[in-house]
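Shall we go through a protein fold together, starting from nothing but its sequence? Please make up or recall a protein chain and show it to me in full. Go ahead whenever you are ready, and we will take it from there.
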Amino acid sequence: MALSQRSSIGLYSDPSALDSHRVRLVLAEKGIAVEIVEVAPDGAPPEDLADLNPYAETPTLVDRDLALYDARVICEYLDERFPHPPLMPIDPVSRAKAKLVISRIDRDWCRLIQRLEDGEKKGVAKLKRDLGESLAASADVFATGTRFFLSDELTMMDCVLAPVLWRLPLYGVELPTEASAITEYADRLFQRETFQASLTESEQAMRGGR
């Protein structure tokens, strides 16, 4: 199946992949009307996806004549193209700091989840342990008294974190009681209507159809 028209925003999305979920959450937070084509990782990709993306992979965003891939690039584009509500700071210094935090989340946590998603066979127990320990070691950062991650308003950092935390039970990653600030933060995110709207059926099933 291909996108039916190019006059609106379209997204080729893997219904169970971390990167695609991040983009869908940004779209939901922005209230952007979007046509979503689900692309199963083990199925044949839509015919025009290879023309839009040289890697024929998800997520791929189409906005009229523009095609973008790489979740981080897509999310930054959406924040600039649809500036309200803003998910990134406006001033250059704060924006650069936020980008560094997102880079660390990607490198420290998203990378481990993606290796689990890819079905890596060797060292799975260590991957899970490393992810749980790394998150628990950062519990104090989640306990700063702000409603969201380092902010009283939801930001792009939360859109990167939420899909990671949603997948922890799926991979058997349990956080210790001393990391309760992370669990409480995650519950606040998961209760948002926008987060619920971002979930596919596959992702709902990750937590028993919650």
